[in-house]
Amino acid sequence: METFDKLQKTMLKETFINLLTDYTDNNDLINELWFEIEQNYSDIKRHYHSLQHLEHLLQQLTTVKNQIQNWNTVLFTLYYHDIVYNATQFENEEKSAEFAEKHMKQILVSTEIIELCKNQILATKSHNNSKDSDTNYFTDADL
After folding, report:
1. DSSP code of 72?
2. Does the global pTM surpass 0.90?
3. What is the per-residue DSSP string for 26-52?
4. How would you class 65 by CB atoms within 10 Å of its CB: exposed for 0-12, middle for 13-18, buried for 19 or more?
5. What structural domains and CATH numbers belong to the chain?
6. pLDDT tens, 32-42?
């Protein structure tokens, strides 16, 4: 199991780093942002919203990657959709969307991608059908 966890983290980290290098060449910032994701999703209080959940989503979404219009947006959504998680709170998605926006602005992601990402994160609250097919692919995988 330990080997799987190490492999899982490596794949997730590589995918994240590759995503961010489209927006910044600041390796210190990239590593800082990855560390933050790894720490949040590795919190001992998390049982489902973990790095394993992210890996599962990545595997599922990769199988339909050719049908996704904006892969980078979906990847940002994947990494940030449950970044803020407290089982007793009801604003996790809103706080996660704000968190994503703040960090995406740091690396100069376009406003359009940020807004799409925030909308996808918020869609995970209800998992209702969306007019945006990328959102539907993400929320289906998230279930």
Report:
1. H
2. yes
3. -HHHHHHHHHHHHHHHT-TT-SSSSHH
4. exposed
5. 2-142 (1.10.3210)
6. 999 999 999 98
